[in-house]
User: What shape does this take?
Amino acid sequence: GIQVEQSPPDLILQEGANSTLRCNFSDSVNNLQWFHQNPWGQLINLFYIPSGTKQNGRLSATTVATERYSLLYISSSQTTDSGVYFCAVPATGANSKLTFGKGITLSVRP
Amino acid sequence: KAGVTQTPRYLIKTRGQQVTLSCSPISGHRSVSWYQQTPGQGLQFLFEYFSETQRNKGNFPGRFSGRQFSNSRSEMNVSTLELGDSALYLCASSLRSPTINSYNEQFFGPGTRLTVL
Assistant: This one.
């Protein structure tokens, strides 16, 4: 099946800094989602982005499907951005079956 | 629009018991998928239900089962609990396009944290 790798595994930032989180996938995909897992475990939808660039406030995402990667940019980070960030892609022929990366743990220090 | 809801939020069981978890999708969503999250294995797909039928299944033993009702609510059941079943169980709902090559954004509930003692 498709493999999803995220990097770096851990990231520590000072409040106000910018960061780039990367997601590589092993096969072509027709979509990709980025999530933020809050301290209580819920996955919060950030982006639904098969290709191109989307922006939502301080966050933006870019997916280059032909090169099999996606990037999540966080600008002017805040302590509330802390948590685990996951990217997930659907399996070929089984669009509701998401394969997740191992996640990136972000800690933003005040 | 209300989000995906899951009940109960926390559960403690002992080995050998069985457990039933419930998930109510976003209104209008007809697909419900279940995932297990553990520190060692990460997030893994269990199964998906659409129109009361299991459409996709992950690599889990037969002790894990599920069903979906006509109102799209879903339940998953784990029988003969093992210590390794301790995990956060998440369900997700989506509209689910009838076209196999289409993808519908998935929305997750808050999860049920199961502890097996």
Remarks:
- The mean pLDDT of chain B is 93.
